[in-house]
From TrEMBL:
Pfam families: Methyltransf_25. This is Methyltransferase domain-containing protein. The keyword Signal does not apply. InterPro entries: Methyltransf_25 (IPR041698), SAM-dependent_MTases_sf (IPR029063). SUPFAM superfamilies: S-adenosyl-L-methionine-dependent methyltransferases. GO terms for molecular function: methyltransferase activity. CDD domains: AdoMet_MTases. Keywords: Methyltransferase, S-adenosyl-L-methionine, Transferase. Residues 40-131 form the Methyltransferase domain.
Length: 202
């Protein structure tokens, strides 16, 4: 369910605006000290994070599986034309370019467990030496299974799991649960984020 194109297109088209239009608070906090470079925004949705990064000098590759989401993102990004490459792709099946990005930003992206971690390793490999991985999601305590939708939060990677998979090429800077800085999305009770920030050494 989580990565089905039709599901996400239908969800975005079910309302005029799905998200707030503001960048994620974790992103704003964590990249303030990074010099602009090449960024990969995974699951960019309506584009708020990518637009925010581009306005601060980043060159952004913004990827989503939903055409409806990308159409909205393009419409909102007229002032950063040329600084964001909007791309429709499923990164769980097609990995991004290796060692190409100074920042790989993954916020609330439903990355399902795989026995060989193929999709996750594709995202890790996309971080250039000296670059940053920023992975944030809802705390498990705030998530409940939804059998009707086929959703089990235990099916998806949490930051701590990813931290344990990182080898000596990485240093973990942050691996924690913290209060959300923005109100929870309508109809949810998300009060905490879990955050992993890691730097690739080589």
């Amino acid at each position: 369910m989580a990565m089905d194109t039709q599901f996400w297109d239908d969800l975005y088209r079910s309302r005029d605006q799905l998200f707030s239009g503001a960048p994620n608070g974790v992103l704003v906090t964590e990249i303030a000290d990074l010099p602009p470079g090449q960024a990969l925004d995974v699951g960019c949705g309506e584009g708020a994070d990518a637009i925010w990064l581009a306005r601060r000098g980043w060159q952004v590759t913004a990827v989503d599986i939903s055409r409806a989401a990308l159409e909205r993102a393009v419409a909102a990004a007229t002032d950063v034309e040329g600084r964001v490459a909007w791309t429709r792709a499923d990164l769980t099946g097609t990995p991004p370019p290796a060692a190409a990005f100074d920042l790989v930003s993954v916020h609330y992206f439903p990355l399902a467990h795989q026995p060989d971690h193929t999709a996750l390793r594709g995202l890790l490999d996309a971080v250039a030496p000296g670059g940053t991985l920023l992975f944030a999601t809802h705390a498990l305590a705030d998530l409940s299974p939804d059998p009707e939708q086929g959703f089990d939060p235990g099916d998806y990677y949490q930051p701590d799991e990813i931290a344990r998979l990182l080898d000596d090429d990485w240093t973990v800077l942050i691996n924690e649960t913290r209060p959300r800085t923005a109100p929870a999305p309508a109809g949810t009770h998300h009060t905490q984020d879990t955050v992993l920030r890691a730097r690739r050494l080589r």
